[in-house]
Amino acid sequence: MPEQKILKFPNGFFWGAANSAHQVEGGNVNDWTEWEKANAQRLAREAEDKWEPWQQEKFPEMFDPQNYISGRACDHYNRFEEDFDIAKSLGQNAHRFSIEWSRIEPEKGKFSHEAVEHYRRVLLALRERGLEPFVTMWHWTNPLWIRDLGGVEDKNFPCHFAYYAKYLVEQLGSLVRFWFTLNEPTSIIVNSYQEGNWPPQKKSFFAVQAVYKRLAEAHNLAYDKIHKIDPAASVGIANILNYFKPQNINSGLDKIARNFASHYSNERFLNLTKNKHDFLTAQYYFYNIIKFPSRINNKAEINSDLGWGIRPEGLYYILKDLKKYNLPIYVTENGLADAQDSRRKEFIRGHLKWIHKAMEEGVDVRGYFYWSLLDNFEWDKGFWPRFGLVKVDYQTLERTVRPSALEYAKICRENFLEI
Ligand code: FCB
Questions:
Q1: Are the CB atoms for 375 and 335 separated by under 8 Å?
Q2: Buried residues in 273-295 as b, exposed as e (16+ CB within 10 A)
Q3: What is the overall mean pLDDT for the chain?
Q4: Which of 104, 121, 349, 406 has a 20 to 30 A CA-CA distance from 272?
Q5: Which of 25, 192, 379, 381 to mutate to test the pocket of ligand 1 (most atoms within 8 A of CB)?
Q6: How far is 375 from 393, CA to CA, in rounded Å?
Q7: What per-residue confidence (pLDDT) applies to 91?
């Protein structure tokens, strides 16, 4: 029998889960909520072409337009204390969440005192429970006035964003050490402007270039403003990093295509924001096999309910690659849709094993955040994909801890993984 091994994590390692305002809070009014209302019928109709028969059978909610309306979501806006009690009971010592810009600044230059006080209570509730807050300022949703000015493509977007960022740090900075300006800028670039699937559904090569620039400027400006107010703050971007592998390592063309994909998806944004990171992050979901000229698929032996292949080793290669930047690293998202909870335990263990291997080889990883604490509203796919450590019954809003969450809790508490 193979010997059991203990993979120890360093003292002070952050263990948590992540969420974002729009996906859990409920009651938002922003560019996405408007888009959902206009597109729910269409998304329900298109489900038949988009998903495989086994998915359609298992998740018939995808044919219901209501599935695509975020609505009251998990009502986390009102139930955050109950949810943080659960996170604490699961042995976590950190929590990543986002502040909803449209609540803080519902009209240009007009800030809501009530919303600020809400997020102050959220931060205090985390601190009281020993959960270190990791706070995202922009997790994709925009106030309607930003949308009306041209959204992230508008040349003034960086200034508006930096102004909002400054305000947040002035108001709440004493309670926050870790700030993320943006969540996954490249996901918006690809899904909204390259493929045209997400709001504002503008498929344009020029818009893609503009948005790369605007989002990078927004981060850079905000980074400086935040540090001016709070030099001790730790500021970064919550960044998706995809792993790309050439299908045939002897094929020059496959390798060129791999390098190209990796540049646009991972490196370009980091280059545009060089020297404006106090730490780096990895949000890992996709291991892509590249056959010239593009990706073939990301299916693996075991796949999530969304059909995303599970290949934990990709995270190891990504982390090894980040080592060259010589900055602390946090894995700020990693998770899967698994309604039956049949793969989640091994998913978490598998990724942690590879993270640990990277750490043994000198990569300075300081925290891991599973996506997500609760089942939530998965953007244009709606509610059917179940990412939560905690199941949410959307009728009663009842929370039920899934068995895999208890396994993860054991690792968080013991600060080691037994394999
Ligand atoms: C990430 C997003 C997050 C969630 C997960 C599944 O790309 O940051 O909001 O949708 O994917």
A1: no
A2: beebbbbbbbbbbbbbbbbbeeb
A3: 97
A4: 104
A5: 379
A6: 9
A7: 98
Outline where 251-310 has alpha helix (H).
252-262, 268-272
**Of 31-35, 259-263, 312-316, which gets the smallest average pLDDT?**
259-263
**Of the candidates 117, 177, 118, 164, which has an alpha carbon nearest to the alpha carbon of residue 138?**
164
Closest residue CA from atom 2 of ligand 1: 184
Pocket test for ligand 1, best of 333, 375, 387 (most atoms within 8 A of CB): 333
Q: Which ligand 1 atom lies nearest to the CA of residue 187?
A: 7
This prediction's pTM: 0.97
Residue with structure tokens 């796949």? Answer: 303
Residues in the chain: 419
Strand partners, 283: 240, 333
Task: Report how far residue 350's alpha carbon sits from residue 364's, in angstroms, rounded to the nearest whole number.
Answer: 19
> How far is 297 from 197, CA to CA, in rounded Å?
19
Give per-residue pLDDT as tens, 162-171.
999 999 999 9
Would you say 372 and 335 are in contact if contact means Cβ atoms under 8 Å apart?
A: yes
Q: How far apart are CA 154 and CA 31, in angstroms?
A: 15
Specify the 3-state DSSP secondary structure of 18: strand
pLDDT, position 92: 98
pLDDT score at 1: 64
At 296, the pLDDT band (50, 70, 90 cuts) reads: confident
Q: What is the pLDDT of residue 336?
A: 98
Instruction: Quote the ligand 1 centre to 32 CA distance (angstroms).
Output: 15
CA dist., res. 200 & res. 21, Å (int)? 19
Pick the atom of ligand 1 nearest to 240's CA: 7
402 alpha carbon to ligand 1 midpoint, in Å? 20
Q: What value does the mean pLDDT take over residues 9-23?
A: 98
**Strand 94-98, strand 132-138: pairing:** parallel
Rounded CA gap, 111 and 61, in Å? 37
pLDDT at 2 over 80: no
d(CA 53, CA 56): 5
Closest-lying ligand 1 atom to the alpha carbon of residue 20:
9
Q: Which of 64-68, 152-156, 160-164, 253-257 has the lowest mean pLDDT?
A: 253-257
